[in-house]
Amino acid sequence: MSTTVSAEIITIGDEILFGHILDTNTQWIGLELTDIGILPAKKTSVGDRYDEILEAFRRAFDRYDVVIVTGGLGPTKDDITKQVLCDFFETELEIHEEALEHVTAFFSKRGREMIESNRLQAALPKKCKYLVNHWGTAPGMWFEKDGKVLVSLPGVPYEMKELMKHSVLPALEAHFSLPVIVHHTIRTIGIGESFLAEKIADWENALPKHVKLAYLPSFSGVKLRLTGYGSDRVALTEELLKYGEGLNMLAGIYIYAQNELEIEEKVGQLLAEKGATLATAESCTGGYIAHRITGIPGSSTYFLGGVVSYANEVKEAVLDVPSEYLKTYGAVSEQVAEAMAEGVRTRLGATFAISTTGIAGPGGGTEEKPVGTIWIACAGPQGTVSRKLQLGTLRDVNIQLTAMHVLNMLRQSLELD
């Protein structure tokens, strides 16, 4: 019978700790381990310091079944992972003939000189199993002790990923008797995490012990991730889908997808299904919404274009916003937001149009209209709707939240149309 197999992921390198390089390896490894039934229990990042790396290995190997290590395998003096591994497993380095042949061929094919530091890439701990890195010179290394496994991989993401996919993951599946872990994601929008938790509390409390719920809030809404543990992948997947359907009964108005779709992808699907088109008129978001929409492959089938009407003169001349609206109500107003949406819809001949106008910050606010005051609107065949947002003082946050709200407004209009 399979039991829970847990793992720790360790990244090595000052460049990660200092923020010079973004650690994408840990996220990717965590997803891949989960897919084969290994539970990522902890992640650790350490700098290029011998004592700290050694202590990280000791702690991880004491607590978990699998330890995945990335980084510190290059040819420079700061790359000390191999020496620490030797001391941890009580062994020593030796030139591995297969690894040497690989490194030699690697440089020969590229017409580059084989210097001593590159030759030392083939020096491996005697107790490791050599994992060939067909995409670089840093080796992969597999260690076993007391039924546990430690794998050391290069930190370069594409090299690490190929080694994981072709060598490490299949070997882990063969080494352990693994349970099945299945994730099911429900995407919600337009409701805060605490309000959502209160609304679905009884449903959450009734979940069985082998099903866990996680709340994952972001600017795009709150993701609800159901994780099930069992032995039958098909049955477990069906079970999670049923729980998702039950959740839809409680919070359906806020749920826009039962998968990993972003809101702009959902909107694109709805537009494509209806054979409808979209145009945007942006002031305070400065083209960010158009950027998100056009980031989706195939968006050219429904997105006609957009206008970034930052200045009032552009609102008047290009979007036909009446000058009296600007004078009487101001650029940040319900009337102007609606006129912008209607204007760009007419100008570009779109089925639907959305608009934003507001004070993103950090300056520009008044007592009547403080920073974070934003109006959004959506114009379509059934008319125009608008809404006032009262956000905070952080510019980037306000832009992202505004995009989320207006795209959700468009989704709701499309679903009602």
From TrEMBL:
Xref: InterPro entries: CinA, CinA-like_C, CinA_C, CinA_KH, Competence-induced_CinA, MoaB/Mog-like_dom_sf, MoaB/Mog_dom
Top-rank taxon, per record: Bacteria
Family according to the record: Belongs to the CinA family.
Name recorded for this polypeptide: CinA-like protein
Pfam families, A to Z: CinA (PF02464), CinA_KH (PF18146), MoCF_biosynth (PF00994)
Domain MoaB/Mog: 8-175
